């Protein structure tokens, strides 16, 4: 009997959304790969996040879920996420580093789940801002949905940058 079929599925989805051909279009790395340092930090209009802000935000959620897995399985917590950082703060980090941190967060999350049995997905954690326990399967689905949601926002942001001739 295959004991981690669903865990493998989540891991494959994380891989696909970030690196493989998708039915919906470009994966994350294709979408952000050609952006220049300058373009990554441009907000096409003040109410829209820059691509750099979106990538940093996505990284934060992935780190948070990885932390919850580490805590539950007694692995020392490494990072503390900061959910929405300003463009000014992110510019001090740099676009290249932000992309590397994003990729690292995906790799770490995949590594933390790859050897777990499917029963792990039913284990629970408590959200800090809720008093409710959630299964890890719910969190992993949430990460996948979160990436896809923001992948769409990245696409719209890039289209607006092109339409307004703000890309360089």
TrEMBL record:
Residues 32-154 form the DinB-like domain. SUPFAM superfamilies: DinB/YfiT-like putative metalloenzymes (SSF109854). InterPro entries: DinB-like, DinB/YfiT-like. Pfam families: DinB_2. Coiled coil: none annotated. It comes from the Bacteria. This is DinB family protein. It comes from Dokdonia ponticola.
